[in-house]
User: Which sequence fits this backbone?
C-alpha cells in the first residue's frame, strides 16, 4: 500500500458516513465520535486529495462532483471492510458481535422491545444497532449492506425471507364517529370520508390508494403524517379516519373495524444475501422462534 493510500484509509469512514447521512452531526452520531473529529477527518481527506468533497446545503452537506466520484469508487470498499472485520470478530467469539437490525414503523412500542429484551438476556454481549424506518428504506439498507437483518411488512421479492405471519389493515375511527359501532365496513362506504394517511412512499399509503381505487374512488387525504402513533392521535380527535395495521397499545378514543375487500400482508424476516455471522444467525433464530410476539396487538373490533 502506498503512503498516500495508507494515510487516506482511516479518513474514509468519516467521508462515507457523512456522504450517506448528508449531515456531519448525524455521521458523528453513527460513528460515535465528536462532530469536530469527523469534520477534521473530512478536511484532512480533502487536503490529501486536493479537491473539495462536500458543499454546505442548508444545515446539511452534499457531495461535490469530485465527492460523488470518490464515493462511487469507495463505498463498496468501506462496506466490504466493515463486513470483513465484523465477521472475523464474530467468528472469533460467537457469543459477541454486532447485528444491524431494522424493523418497520408499525412495530416497536411493545413487540420489538419485548423480543429484543429476551434476546439480550440470552446473548448479553451481542451488540444491536437498531433502525426503524418504512419498508422500502429498510429494503435498501439490507440490499446495500447497512442492515444485516430486518422485519418488513410486506417483504420484498428480491431478498431471502422467512414469513413470520400475516397482518390485515383495519379501519381506525374516533369512538364518536358515525361508523364506530359497526362490526364491518365496505370500502365503498368511505368515499366521502377524510383520511389521515402516511406519505406516498409508505406501503400502507399505497395499499390505501389501491384499495380505494378498486372500490371506485380516490381517498381524500386531509392530513399526511409519517408517524403512525400521530395518525391515531388525529383519528382520536375525529380529524379523519385511517386504514392502519392493528395497534400494539391501547389508543384512547379510537376503535378499529374490519374492512371487506382488503387482503392480508405478509410479515417477513429478511436477511442480507451474504452468509450471516453467528450473531446475526442467533438473532434470526430467536425472532423466528418467538414470531408470535410480533403478531400480538391490542386492536379488536368494537363489539369485542
Assistant:
Amino acid at each position: 500500500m502506498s503512503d498516500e493510500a495508507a494515510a487516506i484509509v482511516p479518513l474514509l469512514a468519516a467521508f462515507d458516513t457523512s456522504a450517506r447521512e448528508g449531515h456531519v452531526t448525524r455521521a458523528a452520531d453513527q460513528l460515535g465520535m465528536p462532530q469536530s473529529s469527523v469534520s477534521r477527518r473530512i478536511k484532512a481527506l480533502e487536503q490529501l486529495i486536493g479537491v473539495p468533497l462536500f458543499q454546505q446545503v442548508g444545515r446539511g452537506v452534499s457531495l461535490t462532483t469530485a465527492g460523488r466520484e470518490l464515493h462511487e469508487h469507495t463505498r463498496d470498499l468501506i462496506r466490504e471492510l466493515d463486513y470483513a472485520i465484523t465477521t472475523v470478530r464474530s467468528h472469533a467469539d460467537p457469543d459477541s458481535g454486532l447485528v444491524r437490525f431494522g424493523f418497520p414503523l408499525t412495530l416497536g412500542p411493545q413487540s420489538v422491545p419485548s423480543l429484543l429484551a429476551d434476546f439480550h438476556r440470552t446473548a448479553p454481549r451481542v451488540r444491536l444497532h437498531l433502525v426503524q424506518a418504512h419498508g422500502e428504506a429498510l429494503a435498501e439498507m439490507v440490499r446495500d449492506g447497512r442492515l444485516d437483518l430486518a422485519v418488513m411488512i410486506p417483504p420484498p421479492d428480491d431478498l431471502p425471507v422467512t414469513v413470520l405471519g400475516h397482518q390485515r389493515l383495519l379501519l381506525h375511527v374516533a369512538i364518536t364517529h358515525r361508523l364506530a359501532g359497526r362490526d364491518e365496513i365496505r370500502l365503498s362506504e368511505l368515499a366521502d370520508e377524510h383520511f389521515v394517511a402516511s406519505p406516498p412512499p409508505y406501503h400502507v399509503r399505497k395499499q390505501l390508494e389501491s384499495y380505494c381505487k378498486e372500490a371506485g374512488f380516490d381517498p381524500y387525504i386531509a392530513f399526511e403524517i409519517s408517524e403512525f402513533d400521530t395518525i391515531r392521535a388525529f383519528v382520536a380527535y375525529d380529524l379523519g379516519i385511517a386504514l392502519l395495521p392493528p395497534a400494539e397499545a391501547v389508543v384512547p378514543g379510537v376503535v378499529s373495524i374490519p374492512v371487506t375487500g382488503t387482503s392480508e400482508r405478509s410479515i417477513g424476516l429478511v436477511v442480507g444475501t451474504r452468509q450471516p455471522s453467528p450473531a446475526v444467525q442467533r438473532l434470526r433464530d430467536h425472532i423466528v422462534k418467538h414470531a408470535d410476539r410480533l403478531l400480538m396487538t391490542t386492536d379488536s373490533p368494537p363489539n369485542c
The chain has ten helices and 14 strands. The longest strand covers residues 97-104. The longest helix spans residues 65-92. The domain at 170-261 is CATH 3.40.190.10 (D-Maltodextrin-Binding Protein; domain 2).
